[in-house]
Amino acid sequence: MELKMTLPLPHGGRLVDRVVTNPRAGKKMAASADAVYDIKPTLYNGMPVRNVYREIMSICYGFFSPCEGSMTKAELERILKERRLLSNWVFPYPMLFDISEEDLKKLKVQEGDRLLLRLKGQPFAVLDIEEIYQIDPKDLATRTFGTPQANPEVVKVAFDNKHPGYNIYSSYNRCVLAGKYTIVNEPKMRSPFDRFWYPPAKARAEFQRRGWNTVIAHQTRNVPHVGHEALMRNAAYIGDIKPCDGIIVNAIVGAKRIGDYPDETIVEAHEMVNIAGYVKPSRHLVTILLWDMRYGNPLESLLHAVARQNMGVSFHMWGRDHAALGPYYDTYAAQILWENGVPSFGFDKPPYAVDYGLLMRPQNMAEFWYCPKCTEVTYSENCNHDKERQRFSGSFIRSLLAEGVFPPAVIMRPEVYKTVVKWWKILGYPFNNKKYLAERENELEIDLADMKL
Questions:
Q1: Quick one: which of 51, 64, 128 has its CA closest to 446?
Q2: Domains of the chain
Q3: How does strand 284-290 pair with strand 246-253?
Q4: Are 56 and 125 in contact (CB under 8 A)?
Q5: How far apart are the first and last CA of the chain?
Q6: Cα(382)–Cα(375) distance, rounded to whole angstroms?
Q7: Residue 171 to residue 138: CA distance in whole angstroms
Q8: How many CB atoms lie within 10 A of CB 373?
Q9: How does residue 3 score in pLDDT terms, banded at 50, 70 and 90?
């Protein structure tokens, strides 16, 4: 007898929808604001490392349900101590609208006021202020990611300024405006991101249209190599039920570390995997999530789980060094969390086994290698040719690309390589750099209508 499954409920029981789609109603809300503030990027050493507009987009479109806005001080404290919202639902990261003390004085806003947020000169969203308080950014950064002393199960090295996520939080302004966001000027996604934009309600509708009852997610900030294909194909076999109906690639779009691939390259390269037929197009969908990567391994996995369960995802593959870099976390920290829990982060059981936890289930994976003796891509435990195995190294592949060397087809598909070269020619460089961060901050991923108030 086949087990019939359905898409999981949104985290918290319902999808947050705080986007005004009626232009007249949106204009009326914008005009009712008590003050106006132009959104500014978070800078580290002069470089944009975060733009809060991406958090506002992801919150208002329901990716981060049940979170609805910038957190109060009480909610922030609960997040840092227990990784839960005040409503008890599991949530990993602070979501804060921070401004400088100088800007706060200029605005002259107080609790109960409505603040209009402009983006690139156009009305974008409103923030209904519930509370105004101050934070210590360095303390916020340390408590967000943990320490070897407080979180010995998974944190191996103290965080410092070599870690991009730590830099984001330690670069926050000291003043926080807490309250709910509402987008009042419905944005239009720019090309090429427009065809990958599947907010939770749209994603769920698309899954249902395709007849998908079980969906597994692949997290990426990378261009796909053949090892990623093997991961997706094999992870989609979920135990004693049939293979997942669908595989979604959910690419992180936003500010990332120097040396990562440009976002345009990432999304089109993953799309090319199914266009070229390496994964069947009918069970493969490339999507995006607006988020400035925090590289937080187990905690990042929780955020990914929240966003993707809200999209309707049933299972999530977790691999080695999930959403991580450097020596800070245990290599398999995300899997430790999803297999056993991390008590010091508030989880005495896995996130799906605790009250008010996630419904989505993990699919923990080891590594795929190329074995020249077997002449195939193989899983860690499948053959006995340990000495011959060749690891899929992202750094090695990037070094080949930087030299203009065509990677062997057993490492990267030629169609994927051509996509990398295409965007290299368009942008003038193959990898994320200071110029790319500045150019993307200037343009962002959306266009807004000219809303004259």
A1: 51
A2: 23-135+172-185 (3.10.400.10), 193-441 (3.40.50.620)
A3: parallel
A4: yes
A5: 61
A6: 13
A7: 8
A8: 12
A9: very low
In whole angstroms, give the CA distance from residue 48 to residue 442: 10
Strands 122-134 and 114-119: antiparallel
| Both tokens assigned to 72 | 């109060």
Instruction: Record the tokens describing residue 62, joined without a space.
Output: 């329901």
Q: Residue 137 is encoded by which pair of tokens? A: 């950014």
- Mean per-residue pLDDT of the chain: 91
Contact assessment for residue 39 and residue 52, using Cβ atoms and an 8 Å cutoff: yes
**Distance of alpha carbon 438 from alpha carbon 433, whole angstroms:** 9
Tens of pLDDT, residues 346-399: 999 999 999 999 999 998 877 666 666 666 666 656 666 566 556 655 666 777
Tokens of 274: 């199914």
Q: Which two tokens stand for residue 173?
A: 């302004």
What's the pLDDT tens digit per position in 84-142?
A: 999 999 999 999 999 999 999 999 999 999 999 999 999 999 999 999 999 999 999 99
Phi, psi of 204 (to 5 degrees): -60, -40
> Is the pTM of the predicted complex or chain greater than 0.70?
yes
Q: What is the DSSP letter of 4?
A: P
Q: How far apart are CA 131 and CA 407, in angstroms?
A: 54
